[in-house]
Amino acid sequence: MKIDRKELRASIYDYVKANYWALFTPLFIIFVITSIVDIIIGWVLITNNLTDLVYVSTLITYFFSIYGFGVYTIALVDCLRTEQKMSVKLIIDVMKKHNLRLFLLSIEMTFLLVILAVVGAMIHPIVESLVLAFMMLAYAFAFPISVDQPSLTNIAVISASFKQTTGLRWDMFLLQTKPLLIALFPLVLALMFSNPFVWLTSNNPSNGIIVFWFFIVCTIILILYVMPKALSVSGFVYQANTPQGPEVI
User: Fold this and answer.
1) How many other CB atoms are there within 10 angstroms of residue 32's CB atom?
2) Is the per-residue pLDDT at 249 higher than 50?
3) How far apart are CA 19 and CA 224, in angstroms?
4) Which of 30, 33, 37, 85 is in the most buried spot, having the most CB atoms within 10 Å?
């Protein structure tokens, strides 16, 4: 399968521009919930001297990320098919209707991701990162496939996602990466100003610190701005390569 990356990018950007807050709100809530759970589990492990179980925190974080963004992708595909507007209520409706199936699917996807990530980490951290990136792209269609084809087992759903993303992963990666790279550009400038030598040789070292934090704030704002663009790619690509289907919720 092939896609016109330029045309699809324009479609995504136009859609996000018209529906930014509707898309941003559920994504931000998912991000906040995942982060809070990760912080709480990490705090419990540290305060109880259970740092050897840090992998538990990683496992749960992976699960919440897969489940949360998977449900978001289902809701987005439904919005593209029915021309309704994204909302937190729509996300909750998807969770209510398909909760057990999606919950179990997330568990299986999480364990598979962790196993492959551990194998990659045994080789080299870079290999681990590449494995995680590849797996997330390969998983991209699993949730909408699970809803569109309820007769498939979870293993079959994961396999179908791997097959259907074949030939699309590079395009999806570029569609997701371009807005993030633009958002991270101020971070590069911030790191340039984090060099102590720059501060010490300046007539007013505090200026370097101010500029540094200015670029950090710019980076955070830009990341929040491009978040819907990057995280809506899976839903758009799936819908573009799937015959018009029924309403999914």
Assistant:
1) 10
2) no
3) 14
4) 30
